[in-house]
Amino acid sequence: MLSTRVKSLAAAMALAGGLVSAAHADTLQVGANIGNVPWEFQDETGANVGFEIDLVNEVASRLGHDVEINNIPFNGLFSAVQSGRIDIAISSITITDERLQSVSFAQPYYDSDQSLTVSEGGPASIDEMKGKVVGVDTGSTGDMWASEREAEIGVTEIRRYEGLAPAMLDLAAGRIDGYISDIPALLYYVKDKPKLKVVSRLETGERYSMMFKKDSDLAGEANAVLTELKEEGFVADLHEKWFGAAPEETTSTVTVMDMP
Fold it and tell me: How far is CA 253 from each of CA 89, 241, 244, rounded to the nearest angstrom?
């Protein structure tokens, strides 16, 4: 028979173990710019779906966490993750040297470029945007690309938006002449909209990943899970699910990479 002291010690250890398990299973706050198809958007039932929604849910699950999605405009994701209001930010966020000074990223999982999208009868290339109005997402790499080349392109105005949906409304209405943003999202968006067309790929060599508070332990933990998911083919399967084709073997969707 166990002594009272041993029983008390066992009970204390069990309680401590329970507390650790409960803490480990806490809910991660994930920030996302909902409406960023096909990465994170709402389906007809109002549920949050998309490539990165599936991916962050799987990463969190393997780490023993639940996920709560917070809808935050793209430009607000950076301050939200830096302040600790959210644990992870997703929204086809490009890893850049400038961003790495203030936040951390896990290894990339998607290779991308920017693109120019126009409405029917609009400019046929970036060269035809001279004297036109171009739309971008505030604070995005598309915003950076256009701002750095504003004089070179010769646009009369760079109009900034909080997400793809309002920009597409203005493009369809003729209030802007073109829209610069990530090519995968635009190819997905226009595939059933014959009056809109992606006319130019703007090569930038971007790679997307999950963003974390600077030097967060969670970044390393998520990075290790991403390695597992790539090796298992999970990330490649997500690519096929959301883009209708297998990823190229040389891309970061398939290749295990170091944390930046």
Answer: 18, 13, 14
DSSP strand pairing (66-71 vs 133-137): unpaired
Residue 118's CATH number: 3.40.190.10
Q: State how far the Cα of 249 lies from the Cα of 194, in Å rounded to an integer.
A: 31
Residues 123 and 200 reside in one and the same domain: yes
Is 80 within a domain? yes
- Let me know whether 81 and 149 are in one domain: no
Angle CA(45)–CA(49)–CA(53) in degrees, nearest 5?
150
Query: Measured in whole angstroms, how far is the alpha carbon of residue 172 from the centre of its chain?
Result: 25
Give residue 147's domain range.
Answer: 113-205
- Residue pLDDT tens, the chain, 260 long: 444 343 444 444 444 444 333 334 599 999 999 999 999 999 999 999 999 999 999 999 999 999 999 999 999 999 999 999 999 999 999 999 999 999 999 999 999 999 999 999 999 999 999 999 999 999 999 999 999 999 999 999 999 999 899 999 999 999 999 999 999 989 888 988 999 999 999 999 999 999 999 999 999 999 999 999 999 999 999 999 998 889 889 999 999 999 99
Give the total number of structural domains in the chain. 2
CB atoms within 10 A of CB 113: 16
Are 21 and 41 part of one and the same domain?
yes
pTM beyond 0.90: no
Domain match, 12 and 42 both: yes
DSSP string, 108-157: --EEEEEEEEEETTS-SSGGGGTT-EEEEETTSHHHHHHHHTHHHHT-SE
Same domain for 14 and 75, yes or no, is: yes
- Pair 100, 224 in one domain: yes
